[in-house]
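Trying the structure run again after the queue cleared.
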Amino acid sequence: MLITANPKAIDLQAKLFRGFSDSSRLSILEALRDGPLTVGEIVQTTGLMQSNVSNHLGCLRDCGLVQAEQQGRYVSYALSDKRVAELLRLADELLADVAKGVYECTRYNVPEEQ
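Done. Tokens:
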């Protein structure tokens, strides 16, 4: 029996993975694996510019991958769900097995950041 995928579900899943596909957003998500951080702490951990971090945090928050909590003058950001960290962990495990192929793949060329 042939089962066809639901195009809307596939599109939604692709949109979810776009949240993980940008190196800056992925760097932020990786930084948050160890626990909540402020924007300044994320900047320090990732080496990204503050405006870049703020922009990507807005995207990640709007997409439901991170949550924000006001703590006095500061806002602390955390992964919204423990499964986000689990997905990152699984990606690490998978990459350990397929890294050579991913590295050599010419179809996934990523433009270098300026």
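The beta strands are 37-38, 66-71, 74-79. Worth checking whether this holds up in the mutant runs.
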